[in-house]
Amino acid sequence: MTDSTPTPPTRRRTTRRSVYLVDKVSTLVITLGGLVVVAAVLGIAIYLIGVTINLFRPGVVEERFVADIPTTHRALFIEPDEHQSTVLRLLDDGVLQTIELDTGEVIAEQDVIPAERTITAFSRAPRGGYVAFGFDDGTVQLGEIGFDTQFVAPSDEPEQLKDLQADQMRRFGDSVATRTPLKQLRLTKAKVEIADPIKLRTGDGAVLLVDYHADDREEFLVAIRADGSAAYNQVRKIQSLMGGAPRIRLREYSFPAKVDAVEHAPQWVFVTGDGENALLFWVDGAVQRYDTSNPDSITLAETVDVADSGRTVTAATKILGGNTIAIGDDAGNVYGYFAARNELADTPDKKNFVRAHTLASQGAAITSIGVSSRDRTFVTGDDRGGAYVRNMTSDALVTKCDAGSPLAFAMLMPKVDGVLLVDDQHRMHVLELDPRHPEATVGSLFGKVWYEGDPEPSYTYQSSSGDDAAEAKYNLVPLIFGTMKATIYTMLISIPFGILAAIYTSEFLSPRIRTSIKPSIEMMASLPSVVLGFIAAMTLAPLIRDYLPGILLSFVGIPIGVLLGAYLWHFVPVRYMNRATAGGRLIMIIGITAIAAFVSVAIGPVLEKTFFQPSNNDVLVRAGGYEAAPRDEWPDWVQQRSTITNSDTRRLRQQGLYYRNGEIVRPAGELSDPEIQREIELHEYDRADIRAWQDGVIGGPWSGWFLISFPGAAIIVAIMVTRYIDPRLRSWDRAFSPTGEAGVELLKFLTTLALSAVVAAIFALLLTSVGLDARDSIFGAFQQRNTLVVGIAMSVAVIPIIYTIADDAMTSVPDTLRSASLGAGATRWQTAVRVVLPVAMSGVFSACMIGLGRAAGETMIVLMATGNTPIMSWSVFDGLRTLSANIAVELPEAPKDHTHYRVLFLCGLVLFAMTFIINTAAEIIRQRVRKRSASL
Amino acid sequence: MTRTETSTAPTMDEQTHTSEAESAVKTRRVEMQSRDAQPAPDPSEFAVIDAIRRGETVPATIHDAVEDEPHVLNVQNFRLWYGAAQALFDLNMNIPRGKVTALIGPSGCGKSTFLRSINRLNDLIPSVRTDGELLLNGEPVYAPDVDVIDLRKRMGMVFQKSNPFPMSIYENVVYPLRIDGERRKSVLNEVCEKALRGAAIWDEVKDRLHQPGTGLSGGQQQRICIARAIAAEPEVLLMDEPCSALDPIATLKIEDLISEIGQRYTVVIVTHNMQQAARVSDYTAFMYLGRLVEFGPTAELFQNPKLPETEQYVTGRFG
To answer: Are A824 and B165 inside 8 Å of each other by CB?
Structure first.
């Protein structure tokens, strides 16, 4: 046999060099590529951490030098300029000293107030250099004391300053000359503008206390005189055309302050930045708050005690913005107080002066509080020489330093880049400060913060506002919440749709149709999300607004319609049923769905009329037929509320009370009253209106609960029926003809629906009776750009992803399993659910997780379709703001390295961490699932 | 030469294992040798095969013994196409009730296709078209008003590759009842035990009924599949080369099991292994290129076939 076969040509049995080389090179390239990818991902994480870690690092303070600035007078204020070259010191004899910061030498002195006038009161605003003086003759003088900074052109530079090097400074006349790092010459000197004295009409005697608040919009002045009388003034400046200091006009409103100026005089007076409160502080902690929102009738709103028992208040200052007062006591405790809105306060202006911030104690009496003119950072100095730099919003202790001897003044450099302390020996301590990001702490970023004016601590995100005086609110919780909410609602829609679509195409559809349907669904995934967002915002949102009842109904109506169609299909004799092709069935299902959707939308208004019809009292009150309810009719729980929320309004209504225009009322009058009739007709108050129901204006919780619990009730009832009724039916349903059987099934289905309605009604009654209302959670007031819109629009992007991967997973399930199940007499659906889906579970799970990742990181759709309101509400009809949308919206307006900028990076990091955790958890679960079905 | 190799190779394996297997194999070997001794037939005697190859219709040779039995399946002029290609030609055969019928034939002769036509699993392939009639206990299988799902419930099927579902052994076995909505524990437990005993695997798995069925060995898995197939008391049990993916020991166990099941159920088994057909079946049908060639009692077909082609095939000289 071997003889006849020709010998094959000799074959080389060694591997060629080049093959080895290619192998080596490719190994190297692949390894390198892999490492680069890993390094890139890690690099992003590390970079994000690197940028955000700064938010949490404490501030740094370092002593630069000490200089003596001796004086025999008491200083009214000391203020450094923003370039840290000069310090102004105003002495109580009216002399303003310009002091060179580096040496402490006085380089200029000027009389701001003539020496013969006796200053009895003084105030200076934290920002803008606005000062007010009060005198023993009952006059006040207002003005500005600040810095005048000029840059000198190189050609105009004086000869003796030409040799000044960068960052050096030299005295030059009454100015201090400094050379900037950019080689410009800068001259800084004091700028003083004091208007003429104005005699206060109110009261008598010296001006005891004065406080002057001024900003770009309005100016207020409050003064207390020696006889205890008080005046609230609106200040008007008239700028003279001839130049010079503006003339000042006061519009004076005197008010009866309850002050015993002789025996028990107040120590401080403040007018808040909004001009609505005048606050009188006594050393023992007593505070009188006067409501000045209506200057014609100023009343004592409340008297509170701000000091802890046995403590005396030793320092009090307004924080930037002028609405929060920082106080320090003789034990070193520091608190922040402001007037917080409280709808049910017994004060006439519905506000309470509350201790909103409790800061770290420094253990020695606070002697001075210096506030920043840029943010809510402030420094507190004590009588042992300690100084704490703090932030009022976050309660953070930024850093602390020690001057060694009791402090007379503690203040921040204007750029918050230094601390200036003056001790009782008239020594000036200059410290360099890097506060980093005092408004951001773990507590303020992730915990509840009590923001200025708010009724209670809350999670609020409000990064930017008109000016620095507004409190920056960097709480990420609403954003994390928004991200989760958008993701959850999206997944609620897209998981069922994606998986059911995958089951349909992989198990039911003929391969021929599948090959054309699958790519077209996958194509949906490549739709740019900005297009989806645009369509959602411009088309979908108005559509949902206009057809809300119908669209809500279709969530239930379409499944019922399709099921009904399936039951009716059973009436078709088997011989015709068998003739239907897969394509024919597909067309039939599409038709049924379309009909069901159409019917749902068409009967939406009927549903609205049935469930959301206002009661007669609702109509009456809305049309103006009400009267104030006496306080003893109020339920107990209302007394404890600080605000009346929508949910409180609805609870009240269940007890027959209403809340209108800030007061609790009860219906009064007759519907037949022509006045009321006209109102009703004009505004259609008697029309059934689901949106009015959502807003809480009409109707009780029952109808909402009924609609929400219906699907759940239907599922429960259906399970009960298959579990307990079916086995009984089975024993005698062989007796029926196929048509009879179909009839029994249809009857069963309709009974299930009816039973579900009963169960849902009972369940809704139960929930209502325990005082729950869906409008507090998932069914709140309607916003046009809401989560339902986002959920639907984002699902369009997410469903194709879930579908594609799930379909692949299910298609790859071995056909032998399918055959085994079908061969045992299972239907396709049973096969899909009991055999294919469990085997493909790990793939289907991955599909959902990848979809989840997409939904969590999606930006454009949420950006365009949500309204970007960072609120925390589970309501389907409220907007939201996600982390990703927040970054996209705000990055352009966040200055580099600013707190806001780093907070946005933190948003990125949180998003990264969220997806990382989700994906890791998903992967672990998936591995488990896969291990279980690995042996197949 | 080829034949000797194929028949001895498994023999060696089996001999090293059990004495039971050894004795069975020895008997078989004697049979083989006796057949080897016969002279090679004249190729001109293959008239039927040649006719089939030419595409001519040749009536099948069906032994009288088959016709005398009561029948569970009547196949009448059954034809099947995959698209344009015809795979089964005018099958006419009656499968005896309560017996094991083996379908043998070279690869591609349509035995598996025929088997899958009985429970209409071929319907799943969109291009399949059929003609003629198949009656299961007198009721048509292919009539337009037949509910396929109900039809399949009357048969059990065991596949080439063991395919337990990714669920517990217990759930695997009671699956046919579960899909009918049976929930009564007592019924399920009884059926499960009975089926597992029937599949001769009860003792091996009775302590681990609630562990996944996929953790068992190949042979055990296949017996679980058999248990699943007989759990619903099928009128016909269809087996599609149930042993081809198993090792010899497991094969032997399954074969014993099939013989035993054959006492109680009608079994139609497709096999490539002639010895297996000889050992487990009462009747054997020899198919070739989509046509039935000869159908008769197994002993007769193997030892004294009416057609020389059948003899050539069962002795391994062609195919």
So the answer is: no
Domain that holds residue B226: 166-233
C-alpha A243, offset from chain centre: 47
| Alpha carbon of B258: minimum distance to chain A alpha carbons (Å) | 18
**B15: pLDDT strictly greater than 50:** no
Q: Is B153 an interface residue toward A (CB < 8 Å)?
A: yes
CATH number of the CATH domain containing B86: 3.40.50.300
Q: Do B50 and B111 fall within a single domain?
A: yes
Q: How far is CA A461 from CA A471, A482, A854, A898, in A?
A: 11, 11, 24, 16
What number is the average pLDDT over the span B45-50?
Answer: 76
Which parts of chain A have pLDDT scores under 50?
Answer: 1-2, 935-936
B295 & B216 share domain:
no
DSSP-derived letter for residue A92 is T
What is the rounded CA–CA span in Å between residue B230 and residue B257? 12
Residues of A in contact with B149 (CB under 8 A): 825-827
Cα A341 from Cα A354, distance rounded (Å): 10
Beta carbons of A726 and B181 less than 8 Å apart: yes
**Would the CB atoms of B225 and A819 count as touching at under 8 Å?**
no
- Point out the residue among A575, A730, A825 whose CB comes nearest to the CB of B153: A825
Q: Do B178 and A824 touch, CB atoms closer than 8 A? A: no
**What 3-state DSSP class applies to A45?**
helix
Instruction: Report the alpha-carbon distance of residue A811 to residue A837 in Å, rounded.
Output: 10
List of E strands, A685-816 = none
Inter-chain CB pairs, A–B, below 8 Å = 100
Q: Which of residues 101-120 of B touch A (CB under 8 A)?
A: 119
Single out the residue of A218, A222, A193 nearest to residue A134, CA to CA. A222
**Dihedral, CA of residue A776, residue A777, residue A783 and residue A786, to nearest 10:** 180
Interchain proximity A825–B228, CB inside 8 Å: no
Say which of B124, B145, B176 has its CB closest to residue A825.
Answer: B176
Residues of B in contact with A834 (CB under 8 A): 165, 175, 178-179
Q: Which of A814, A824, A835 sits opposite B176 (nearest CB)?
A: A824
Q: Measured between CB atoms, does B1 come within 8 Å of chain A?
A: no
Three-state DSSP at A291 gives strand
Considering the domain architecture, whether residues B59 and B129 belong to the same structural domain is answered as yes
pLDDT for the residue numbered B13:
39
Annotate A806-816 with b (16+ C-beta within 10 A) or e (fewer): bbbbbbebeeb
In a domain, B298, yes or no: yes
Considering the domain architecture, whether residues B185 and B279 belong to the same structural domain is answered as: no
B129 and B180 part of one domain: no
Whole-number Å distance between alpha carbons of A922 and A909: 19
**Separation between Cα atoms, residue A463 and residue A883, nearest integer Å:** 13
Per residue in B86-142, pLDDT (tens digit) is 999 889 999 999 899 999 988 888 889 999 999 898 888 888 889 998 999 888 998
Q: What is the pLDDT of residues B65-76, one digit of tens each?
A: 888 889 999 999
Strand partners, A146: A191
DSSP-based three-state secondary structure for B255: helix
Q: For residue B258, is it within any domain? A: yes
Same domain, yes or no, for B144 and B203? no
What is the C-alpha to C-alpha distance for residues B29 and B23, in angstroms, rounded to an integer?
10
Find, among B194, B20, B31, B266, the residue nearest to B258 by Cα.
Answer: B266
Identify from A734, A835, A841, A844 which residue to disrupt to test chain B contact, counting B C-beta atoms within 10 A and taking the largest count: A835
Cβ pair B212:A827 closer than 8 A: no
Facing residue for A838 by CB, picked from B148, B166, B176: B166
CA of B229 to nearest chain A CA: how many angstroms apart? 7
Task: Give the chain B residue whose CA is nearest to the CA of A833.
Answer: B179
User: Which positions in chain A touch B176 (Cβ < 8 Å)?
Assistant: 824-826
